[in-house]
Task: inverse folding
């Protein structure tokens, strides 16, 4: 094997190609600035199902169908699926993939799942274990609120640092051969915990993980921020984004105007009253598989560093007084294969 | 790449070696028939911690320490960790790996996690992405009962089909080079749901997945049960094991006396009053990383087919009337590299 391999980072010797990608979102997301980049939107929070959890599985099914259709593929063409979500025991993914017959690896990376699944799907294809792999994730505002905070009917007040879980699902299908977007490699995050205990300030809790992974990426691969047209974290929101921006500048890796965050891109934070921005596995998934990949196809972005960030807390760990561990995986996507 | 690749199965062209393995269990497990095969046992359900969830993380830390020590390695020698558990948001794994600095992929495969993590760790090493990868998982009786069923203090009655979640953690460290046990390949399961809705009968819910994966394994790789010295599922318990045994015989793949189940191996089901047997991610993990790998080192087993089975339900999905999807991943372990 001739993959380039460092402590946390690797580059694919034969980069997998993005054969297809798709995303599906809910009502609030369809009222935001990225409306032109979604494959499907629904004005019904339940997506025709009877519960929010089932709606989340339905969204995954819809996004997979859309991605297959765009590439003229069917389920049997997929050799491996890598999927996970925020729900307890990842039922969003298990129930969405239950009737597909696709060999499945379940993941849990909280909101870093899109990046995690892309790296693993890429490894499965580039390593010769799978002909075609699926990377998929989702989140739903209502199922997340109920599980992590309060039932919606309770009408809880949201502090200014809180983020709004995106209702959406995104997926990418990776394969061999030629195409418009390649997964060139990435940096696998380790778990970073700076002791933040406020479960309503995920951006601050995850920012140290993003900084750690970005620095490892640049150092290990001998790269600079300017090597990328866009560097996008997802989803730190306004507060976490500011921390990353300032710390990276302080450490002589100025990200400048090429840096943005999926949590800020998905919503008009002021007009849509989402406080610090969007969050949830679906947030970075739909921004990547909708907006960013479309810009890459139009060659408005040639090299993208996509950094999925996740907060690995649970309501139980928070209630037991634990702080919030964060993780960030970085994926280098490029329009060039070499 | 020259991996042999079928629809669900693959064989490694350069099989990764098991450099080290270890397991840690609680009191009840230490009173069972496999007492001689555990690296560490604790008579304290809390493992010195203040909550059962923290005890679960502690078990993972202890098993990782034991595995590192046996191979004279330290944390920095591990390039990637693949870990997951049953707790909501997989906090057992996230908190155990938080201070290690090891690049981490979080998994969710319910009780199939040991097999899932072995396959992915194997792919990461054999694909040239990692020098040395960790596969690890755990479960804890008390944290599982509270999360899936009732708080222990409630004293709920257990039906005869129920299984007893093992308090234990197991891990294996895979690397390149030579050794006593190799991961030769495996079969990735797809999600199978036969409509069983009894959350107290996991064995019956998971058995169809085990049958599906075993049949795919034999068919795709042109193998027969007799090619293995031992075929072990984990953990179907007595009821699921009987279903698998009978259906495989009916389908002309007689497993005969080479077949056993981790849920039956770990406990003396009658004397220890565990009804249908053991369960939980930790069950198959400690049986594999303790008992089975030791037998392989003594060459009492040369070819082992280890089939991790998982029930992908959550209390929410059960309360919403959903049936229980199952999954099974098979891993071929051998004392021979070729």
Result:
């Amino acid at each position: 094997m001739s993959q380039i391999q460092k402590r946390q980072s690797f580059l694919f010797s034969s980069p997998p190609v993005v054969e297809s990608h798709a995303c599906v979102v809910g009502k609030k997301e369809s009222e935001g600035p990225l409306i032109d980049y979604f494959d499907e939107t629904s004005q019904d929070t339940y997506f025709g199902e009877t519960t929010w959890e089932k709606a989340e599985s339905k969204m995954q099914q819809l996004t997979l169908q859309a991605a297959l259709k765009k590439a003229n593929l069917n389920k049997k063409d997929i050799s491996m699926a890598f999927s996970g979500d925020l729900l307890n025991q990842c039922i969003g993914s298990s129930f969405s993939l239950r009737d597909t017959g696709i060999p499945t690896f379940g993941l849990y990376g909280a909101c870093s799942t899109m990046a995690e699944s892309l790296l693993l799907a890429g490894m499965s294809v580039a390593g010769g274990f799978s002909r075609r792999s699926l990377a998929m994730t989702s989140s739903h505002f209502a199922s997340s609120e109920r599980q992590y905070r309060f039932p919606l009917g309770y009408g809880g007040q949201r502090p200014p640092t809180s983020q709004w879980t995106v209702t959406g699902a995104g997926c990418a299908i990776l394969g061999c051969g030629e195409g418009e977007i390649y997964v060139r490699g990435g940096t696998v995050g380790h778990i970073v915990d700076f002791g933040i205990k406020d479960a309503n300030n995920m951006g601050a809790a995850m920012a140290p993980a993003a900084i750690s992974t970005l620095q490892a990426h640049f150092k290990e691969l001998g790269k600079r921020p300017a090597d990328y047209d866009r560097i996008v974290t997802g989803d730190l929101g306004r507060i976490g984004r500011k921390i990353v921006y300032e710390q990276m500048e302080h450490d002589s890796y100025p990200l400048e105007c090429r840096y943005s965050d999926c949590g800020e891109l998905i919503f008009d934070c002021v007009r849509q009253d989402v406080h610090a921005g969007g969050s949830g596995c679906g947030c970075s998934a739909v921004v990547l598989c909708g907006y960013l990949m479309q810009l890459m196809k139009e060659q408005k972005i040639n090299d993208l560093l996509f950094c999925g960030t996740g907060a690995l807390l649970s309501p139980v760990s928070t209630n037991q007084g634990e702080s919030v561990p964060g993780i960030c995986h970085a994926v280098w996507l490029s329009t060039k294969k070499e």
About this structure: The mean pLDDT of chain A is 96.
